[in-house]
Amino acid sequence: MKNLSDIKETAIQAIRDCKNNADLNQLRVLYVGKKGEIQEVMKAMKDMSKEDRPAFGALVNEVKKEISALLEERKCVLEEKELAVKLEEEKLDITLSGYRPHLGNIHPLMLVQQELEDVFVGLGYSVAEGPEVECDLYNFERANIPKDHPARDMQDTFFINVEELLRTHTTAVQMRQLEQSQKEGKEIIKVICPGKVYRRDDDDATHSHQFMQCEGLVVGENIRLSDLKGTLLFMARKMFGENRIIRFRPSYFQFTEPSVEVDVSCHICGGKGCHVCKGSGWIEVLGAGMVHPNVLRMAGFDPKKLSGFAFGVGMERIAMLKYGIDDIRAFYTNDLRFLKAFNRFE
Ligand code: DAH
Asked: What is the pLDDT of residue 102?
């Protein structure tokens, strides 16, 4: 029969070396199980004297307790290790990035249009549209440009037939708005008309056969040039920054009298002169003027009672200035690298 201290020593060693819970269970059976080595030692009690039995029993129990405690301790260690291995194996990396849906973005010209609409709707204007295939009547005649007028040469376009053409400016929508408002008996008009326009042109960095304009029109009693100036100054500051100033230069349009060309102080150099404003400190942004009496008359209004101002902005020009774009063709060639530069979601 094995001696108790040998059993204790080999048990301690075996438990320490044990690497997994299954083996540990076998050790448990081997040492402290019902038919285990400790139990075997207990059997020796029956051959002992009555006096020796309690002390021996106590000693064996002590060893049994010690081994049991060690088994329990090792069990916890091994379970923890096994859990750690399991967690490592079953690790779910929830930080893995998901699939982002591809979001499109708004075209830079639309951004400018939306911004202009915000500015003018905020001033109480409404937004109107008109057809891109337009009648000669609204595109030219009503704009005080009769059939034989030389100004037509500057706005050559694609004619569908003698009377219909691709509109050359949003001024055509202005003429429609005047006529409609007169029919409806309105005496106050405040409207902007954004949209695409077309002209025969040789495309280059600053010319495109298709481009966008935004027309503005205000008609009412006692509308003056100073109203136009205040309105355009407000717009310039909203579009190009609070410190902008504007200046009017005399110009000529058939549908306005007087007519002006409007410059905004350069938003890059603040007016000192730089490559964007070509050293002048000013940037030409739009044409404007007081609605010509002939135009009011042709729409059925009495120019003695009512007056108005109008303006026409090139949206590409605004976008090019705002976003630093140097070739107008970029807006129309659909290069995704260019368009994605305006994606606010990526
Ligand atoms: N229609 C002009 C053009 O295309 C722009 C313009 C100038 C519009 C003056 C206006 C205006 O309404 O008053 O060149």
From this structure: 81
Q: Model-level pTM? A: 0.72
Whether 219 contacts 181, CB under 8 Å? yes
Q: Is cis: bond before 194, omega within 30 of 0?
A: no
Instruction: Verify whether ligand 1 is closer than 6 Å to residue 260 (CB atom).
Output: no
Ligand 1: residue of 262, 311, 313 to mutate (most ligand atoms within 8 A of CB) is 311
CA of 229 to the centre of ligand 1 (A): 15
Q: Identify the CATH number of the domain defined by range 108-342.
A: 3.30.930.10
Q: DSSP secondary-structure letter at 254?
A: T
Instruction: State if residue 198 touches ligand 1 by the CB under 6 angstroms criterion.
Output: no
Three-state secondary structure call for residue 202 = coil
Name the residue ranges covered by the structural domains of the chain: 4-89, 108-342
Q: CA dist 268 to 113, 126, 262, 283, Å?
A: 21, 31, 17, 10
Q: Is the pLDDT of residue 62 over 70?
A: yes
The one-character DSSP state at 159 is B
Q: Whose CA is nearest to atom 3 of ligand 1?
A: 169
